[in-house]
Amino acid sequence: MKKELLTNESLDSGLMITLRKNTLLDDGSLIANVSSKTATVKSTLTAIKNDGTVADISLMLRHLQVYQDKLLQLLGQGYTVKLLDIGLLRIKHKGKIKNASNAASDISQFTLGFTPSKDALDSVKELSVDAILQPEIEPVIEEVADVFRGEKDGFVTSGEPVTVTGLRLKLGEENDRLCFVPQTESGQNADDESRWIEVDHAKIFRNKPSELTFFAPTNLAEGVKYRVRIETSYLGKGKSRKETLIGESEVVMLKS
C-alpha cells in the first residue's frame, strides 16, 4: 500500500546531548547520547515550499513517490541503492546460519545497513548543540512516614517502623548506608560523623528503589533535628556503581 506524502508538517530544530558516566572506564569520561528531531519527507517538503525554491511542490511529490516506489522495488530485488549523494542502502544478513548447508533456502532473514557518503558526514561536522542534559541519578527522598503512628509530620517513633519513599533509594553493597544525620543550628550536617546514627542493615526489612522501610534507631535524641541520608552504589540487577550517590530528606525529629 502506497503512503501518501502530501501533508503539511513543520520542520523543528534542536540537537540535544544527554551525558552519562562511562561505566566501562574508571577515568571520569562520559558517553554522549544524541537526540534530535526527525526531518520527515513531509516536513522537508514543507520547508522547501516555504523557501520558495520550488514552484510546483505537487509535481515534486509525484516524482518522489515514483522514486520511492522504484527504490523499494530495487531493494526487493537485491540491489544496493544509492540515495542521491547522501549514502548507500546495503543489504545485510541478520542473525546466524544454523548449519553449514550451502542451500540458498537456508539463508534468510535479511536487513538493511546504511553507509553515509563523505558529503553527508561533512554536513554534521560543525553542528552546534542546543542543550546538554545530565539525567537524574541521585537518590531522591520524597517522604518520611512514621508507620507506627500513620503520620507524615516530620516525626519518627523510637524503635518503630519508618518508611522512606522516593526514587533510586535501594541499598546494594554492605558499605551503602542509611543514616540519621544531626543538623547544626545553621541547618548543615554535623561534620563529626561519629554523631551520625546509622541504621543496621538487619533493621531494614523492605529495600526497594522506591521504598525503604526500617526500624528507627533507639538512640535518637529528643529535640535534635536530623536528616535521613541514603548513600548507595546500587545500579540495578545485582550491579554496583563505582561511585556512591547521596540523597537526603527534609528535617525529621524524634516523637516524644
Kindly describe this structure:
By secondary structure, the protein is mainly beta. The chain contains three helices and 15 strands. The protein has helices at 41-51, 57-76, 118-123, and strands at residues 15-21, 30-36, 81-83, 87-93, 110-116, 131-133, 140-146, 155-156, 161-167, 177-182, 197-198, 204-208, 211-215, 226-236, 239-254. A five-stranded mixed sheet has the order 8-15-14-10-11, with no helix packed on it. The longest helix has 20 residues, at 57-76. It is elongated and about 80 Å long. The relative contact order is 0.13. Residues 1-8 have low confidence and may be disordered.
Write the layout of secondary structure elements.
Elements (H helix, E strand, L loop, with lengths): L14 E7 L8 E7 L4 H11 L5 H20 L4 E3 L3 E7 L16 E7 L1 H6 L7 E3 L6 E7 L8 E2 L4 E7 L9 E6 L14 E2 L5 E5 L2 E5 L10 E11 L2 E16 L2
Parallel strand pairs: 1-6, 8-15
Antiparallel strand pairs: 1-2, 3-4, 4-5, 7-9, 9-13, 10-11, 10-14, 12-13, 14-15
